[in-house]
Amino acid sequence: MKNVLLFGYGKMGSSIARGWMLKQLEFNFFIIEKEPALRKIAYKDGFKAYPNTNFLHESEKLKKIDIIFLAVKPQQMEDTIKNFSNFIFSELVFISIAAGLSFSWFRKKINNDIKLVRAMPNLPASIGFGVTGYCKSKNLSEEDNKDVYALLSAFSKIIYLNNESLIDNVTAISGSGPGYIFYLVEVLTQIAIDQGLTVKDAKTLARETLIGSARLIETSDIDTKTLKDNVTSPGGTTEAGLLVLESETNGLYPLLKSTIKNAIKRAKELNYDG
User: Is the CATH number 3.30.40.10 carried by domain 2-167?
Assistant: First the structure.
């Protein structure tokens, strides 16, 4: 079996690793995590975890690492790549989920010919319901691609991007998207409270409406426009509400479009080539 080395066992790293464990993938997994408390969690989750690659090699005497999965924060990446000096880069596939660190950055910092995948998962990956957009360098083999697909699809649905610049769009839509959805529930809850409902009832109505609607989208073959039309009776309350939401000047579409554009702008500002 191939050996996968995961750097970072924080929120995303641990979520990803647990997804691998649940799917019982045909890989050997090892964790590098400098924080003792997080290593302890990794041990409890059933993984072998080490503070750095020196401890790993001394303990495991691994002849070869096949895939390095980088789940550390962008600002921690400089220190992380110091662990790679003894690796043979032509035999490695790197997968990074660090926002803003481009192919160019990794090539300058590690090696110009590295096999590299950039992926952008989102928070629901922590419960196995995420979505991940990814792009890759052109030098991955067919076998490499199969390995990448297996690892990414274990914790989320995946979308292949044929252009690295689209990562910023994915970041703004699905990466940041849970924040927008959580805020929608927060706003619906507060409005329900303002209209006289109890806090408990308001939270239940807002949360369960979103969960139920999302479940209906997932389990139905009907497109969302038709689902919307099905709940909209002529002259009814939904139609009255949608008259506001569908306004071309200040409705939901122009508001969300402005939201996404601003998030994409920020994502591009955070990009760093090295």
Answer: no
